[in-house]
Amino acid sequence: MPHSVSSPDPLGHALLAFHRGTDSAATLTVHSNVAEDEPLPASYFFRSLWEMPELERLALEECRGRVLDLGAGAGCHTLELQQRGFAVKAVDVSEGAVHVMQARGVQEVARHELFAVPAEAGGYDTLLMLMNGLGLVGTLDGLERFLKYAHTLLAPGGQILATSSDISYLYEDEEGALVFDLNGPYYGEVEYTMSYEQETGAAFSWLFADASILQDYAEAAGYDVEFLAEDEQQQYLVRLTVRN
């Protein structure tokens, strides 16, 4: 396994440092255009089943058949599914994350951009997108594109299990009224960068889709939509099933 990871990959370097024990407190700093900088401990990517939020545990229960874990990080969901006997492929764009997953025993792992994941004969029965994983699509345009693209990855009747959040609360004034520019971009399109130690990664877009806009886009793209659960942080778990 290569010992070096091409830069910049702050996420991958933080995960590797934590996994190898060279920095047991490895913590990323997440910078965004909507909120203060936030710390993100690498340890969070290594959580066990009982450290996972309820929405994630429910998503794992709802998986079926051949699973594709998109944005798999350090592989905590893939490893749990493997233990349950599922055939799972884990995908992440971070080279360091891929090395960590290989070292942790993920049986099938590959480094791909979201829109470069190769289709597989027979397709996947479940696409898994956890940790606000729907955000990988970046923007509403990206969501529309992804929902079409996912048809090429899914088996007939296949499902997408994804979490996302409504972040409109960030735009409330003191009276609780929402204040955002209706002529600007959709309020759930956020720009992020991540840094670890002296390394800062490239900026990337992340989508937080409110439930009604997701339902509109998914139904237009040929999916049945079922909201399975919601937590106190306005995060929800949704199942999108290819309409036969």
TrEMBL record:
Family annotation (Gene3D superfamilies): Vaccinia Virus protein VP39
Domain Methyltransferase: 67-158
Signal peptide start-end: none
GO biological process: methylation
The keyword Lipid biosynthesis is annotated on this UniProt entry: no
Example GO molecular function: methyltransferase activity
Name used for this protein in its record: Class I SAM-dependent methyltransferase
